[in-house]
Amino acid sequence: MAQVSVIIPSYNTAHFLPQAIESVLAQTYRDFEIILINDGSTDATSEIAERYTKQHPDKIRYISQDNQGLAKARNTGIRHSRASYIALLDADDVWLPCRLHEGIKILEKDPSVGLVHGRVKNIDAQNREIATPSCPRWALQGHIFNELFMRRGNIISPTALFRRSCCDEVGGFDPYLTRLGCEDRDLWLRIAQKYKITYIDRIIAYYRVTTQSMSHQLDRMMQARLYVIDKYCPENNPHTLKLRRRALAKIFRDNGDEFLLKNDLITARQEYRKAIQNNPWTFWAWINGLKTLKAGWGL
């Protein structure tokens, strides 16, 4: 039985899928199985998946299902996994050969660690490297629920390697978020509530960013982020009210920044006002809100 189940969901990403599969087959750590889920693709995904399954029957299992979205496709893979550890790789992302080896040695050394992740390099559809945002290291390891919740820290899915027992304890990906986004962060939050997170400070994967990426769908992401806040900090819970307001302020400030970049000064100003109403100490909401006023006055 393999030690690691690699979950690769694919929906109409046939043009990227071979590169993703090959990056797993090139791993220096060899004790893995690949569970490839075709989530109702209408392109050549099935032909590619069947070809690789025939070439590597000892390594790859293929599952085809009706289109249900990313969260449900990943849950299908987890349900069919046989290994002690789960690794995620979306069909448009790519691993470096060291990726599994670096994570496994940490999980096997420290049983208090539930999840290990690392750095990525962003790439575009043509495999060209593009700017990669970074987070402070202190927000990426340890008991980092608050850092993840407040988005000071981030775990990039193609670097996430976690114990199967974590999913058995906290559940898998939330199906409600399957077409909205934030399904990754929601699972990381549940794991971070109970386990320590460890960070590998080196690039172990390439993360593809395109204009069709879920993170570019602002309205959907807003709905998802509000859902996650309600899930962990419900409005009627006085114990989490302060954290809830800080998180809401962060959402509205981020929205304000998006509209400011688009030069939509009125909407940006409205979003900054909401941020300040939730948390008057939101420094950058004040600063950028003043920018919208100055720009509106032609100063």
In short:
This protein is of the alpha/beta class and 299 residues long.
Structure, described:
It is a single chain. By secondary structure, this protein is an alpha/beta fold. It folds into two domains: 4-213, Alpha-Beta Complex (Spore Coat Polysaccharide Biosynthesis Protein SpsA, Chain A); 233-296, no CATH class. It is 43% helix and 18% strand. The chain has eleven helices and eight strands. It has an eight-stranded mixed beta sheet with strand order 3-2-1-4-7-6-8-5, sandwiched between helices. Helix 1 (17-25) links the parallel strand 1 and strand 2. The chain is globular, with a radius of gyration of 20 Å. The mean pLDDT is 93.
CATH architecture of the largest domain: Alpha-Beta Complex
The CATH superfamily of the largest domain turns out to be Spore Coat Polysaccharide Biosynthesis Protein SpsA, Chain A
Extract low-pLDDT stretches.
none
Quaternary organization: single chain
Structural domain tally:
2
* Biggest pleated-sheet summary: 8 strands, mixed
What is the residue-averaged pLDDT? 93
Order of helices and strands: EHEHEHEEHEHEHHEHHHH
How many strand units? Answer: 8
Alpha-carbon Rg, integer: 20 Å
Distance between the termini: 67 Å
* Count of alpha/pi helices: 11
Q: Helix- and strand-based class?
A: alpha/beta
Helix content: 40-55%
Query: If strands are numbered along the chain, what order do they take across the biggest sheet?
Result: 3-2-1-4-7-6-8-5
CATH class descriptor name of the largest domain: Alpha Beta
According to CATH, what is the topology of the largest domain?
Spore Coat Polysaccharide Biosynthesis Protein SpsA, Chain A
Strand percentage lies at: 15-25%
Q: Quick one: overall form? A: globular
